[in-house]
Amino acid sequence: MSCSKSCGKDCGKNHCGACCGGACHSLTLVPAEYALLQTFAVTPFLPVAASWNLKTPIYLEDSEFSQEEYSWAVQALALKGLVRIDYDIPLGKFDYSAYRSYPMHGSMALTAAGQDIVEQLAIQDITPIDKSERMN
């Protein structure tokens, strides 16, 4: 896609941002990521745990998706810069007993970019596409 103004750049890797104010960029969220963002919209800090290797974040507070899907979603949101994971900052007075098999107990919260995305999802009334709708 080319810019609509005269910068002549492609809206890809060399995009100048002048023609569309950066609006050419898009963000793809899988349903588990969307659900977590909606949870963050209501609860600013969520618990997270991990093994000593810190490779897989564990989130057990919701059951709409599998533990593995939530782990992937947390990792993806962190890689996208929307969520910050702090294993050295556990939630005060939170009962981590469901996470007892994981030695690292911490918290996660939206970054400023994550807060912006949550606001845009609400303002634009964006909802995930139902799997049955995608098939058609």
Describe the protein's architecture and organization.
- With 136 residues, this protein is α+β, with helices and mostly antiparallel strands.
- Helix content is 31%, strand content 12%.
- It is built from 4 helices and 3 strands, in the order αβαββαα.
- It has a 3-stranded antiparallel sheet.
- α1 (31-42) crosses α3 (112-123).
- It starts with 30 loop residues before the first helix and ends with a helix.
- The model is unreliable at 1-9 (pLDDT under 50).
Shape field:
globular
The major β-sheet equals: 3 strands, antiparallel
| Structural classification | alpha+beta
Write down how many β-strands occur, each being a DSSP E stretch of 2 or more residues.
Answer: 3
Beta-strand content bin: 5-15%
How far the N terminus sits from the C terminus, by CA atoms, comes to 26 Å
Task: Please tell me the overall pLDDT.
Answer: 83
Q: Could you give the order of strands across the largest sheet?
A: 1-3-2
- How many helices? The count is 4
- Element-level helix/strand string: HEHEEHH
What does this entry show, briefly?
This protein is of the alpha+beta class and 136 residues long. The two termini are 26 Å apart.
Please give the structural blueprint:
Blueprint: H1 31-42, E1 45-50, H2 67-79, E2 83-86, E3 104-110, H3 112-123, H4 131-135
Antiparallel strand pairs: 1-3, 2-3
